[in-house]
User: Fold these one by one.
Assistant:
Number 1:
Amino acid sequence: MTQEQVGSRTAETVKSRKNTQKLASIIYAIRAVCVAWERRQLLVGSRRAAGSKGFIICDRYPSNRPGGMDSARLVVDADHKGVISALYNLLARLESKIYQQIPPPDIVLQLQVSLETAKRRNRSRVKADKEGDGYIESRHQKVRGWHRVGAETVHYIDTEQSLNDTIQSVKEAIESTLND
């Protein structure tokens, strides 16, 4: 094989990898839009089901921060040009609009724990294929910046305390909100 043939094959391989990456990004974007749609349907339906006298408890809720836990994943990238980038950006805008259609929660109980305590608790859990410290650090960082426009009542619950004290703090937060 000549030097020119090797160079040509290398260029073809690089181009093929880039096309594969672009296709993967579009598939990821389509999946993100589908997840956003499902979350919106679930949360709008839950609000409707609760009516004016009931309530629904969710263990997580989408924030306004892209990349946050249970939140939008896609960010518009205006720097790249071409059909694939335009399609990706269209999907990113669609995903953002879907998340904006999710009504804000009436009350938020934001549980707070130190990173050290979260790691210690995770290590003591009995679970196969348990997450490592790196995962706990990443999740801890993402949760800290939770914010949702329209969420007017936010209670911060210290979970460094005992389970019974934490439960009592949650009950008090809910009661104080219902009595307002």
Number 2:
Amino acid sequence: MPRRSSTCKTFVRARERPPIVTVASRASLRARTIDPWLDLTDTADFTRVGSSPRYGRSKLMDIMFTQELGRRLQGTGVAVTCCCPGFNATGLGRELPLAGALERALTALGIGNPQHGADIIVKLATDPEFADSTGGYFAARTAKPLQCPEIGRGEAAQRALWEATAELVHDIRRPYNA
């Protein structure tokens, strides 16, 4: 991995406009609703029951944000893409019942290697085939284009997420004594 990492850094530094790659997930398909204000400010405790839908919404928002950023940077030469890294045994969900046993079994079978997820990220950042991509969402291994789930696919929904994010970031950056 160090060699690949070094190659990636060299390539990105050499580009006048380095690419932007966001990591999303097909878990976004689990999102049944999307409310940018509510979802961006939700501070409820992480629970076994609520973790999967919340994770799905966060990954949906990654795709939506990337596609809106792609539109905003169109024509600048900055490639903006996102990807689903596939299933990776990273410890996410470790609080779920049987998670430890499942991770050990998958690792023993060679399933869920995080390197596979890293490969698509490096490919999107370094492969000239994606240098002009903007707003694309791609699958691990095949780099096949994926669609944003329908609930977050529209430009108006993506713009609403962008605007809610911008306002929240502005509020955070605003001095407290202003």
Number 3:
Amino acid sequence: MPAISPATPLLLLLAGLLVVPAAWAAAGDQPGARQAVVADQQVPNDVPRMREVGQEPRFSWPLSPTPEVTRPFQQPQTEYGPGHRGVDLAATPGQPVLAAGPGVVVFAGQVAAQGVVSIDHDGGLRTTYEPVVPTVPAGTQVYTGQQIGVVVPGHPGCPVAACLHWGVRRGEEYLNPLALIQTKSDIRLKPWEPP
């Protein structure tokens, strides 16, 4: 019988860590595949799931408490076509605007006479918040939930006292911010039944 090297158990463990997740991924939605049940989901049913936007949920709401969506995201059919490249959230004048995720403020100032804050996040994502009075300068590293400005009235088409327009882009592609909100969920794995 050949001698076993002291490194053999470690190599077998590492091989198992690579093979098992790959097998689960390959199983996908086949009968008997690993399944998860998500309870108490807070995101509305009409929000695209993560597979559609190709991104894991990672952001928090930029307003607290959780706001009402007054105008949803509408993906434009062409680069310059009509649509709504973000969501409008009901707010009150002077309400704190919070960073939806950790990142670096890349712009805090006026665009077309409206206050705007833009934050770059890992993964090539950029969030934008308007109309606001910025409370952080460009170059500031921010954390999730940190105040970055206050809401001001004046967003076109807002049906309440004030609205926050919140947008997300990856490069030049606009994404639905609601699809990127991380919600508190209870996840339970169902028993796995081998084929």
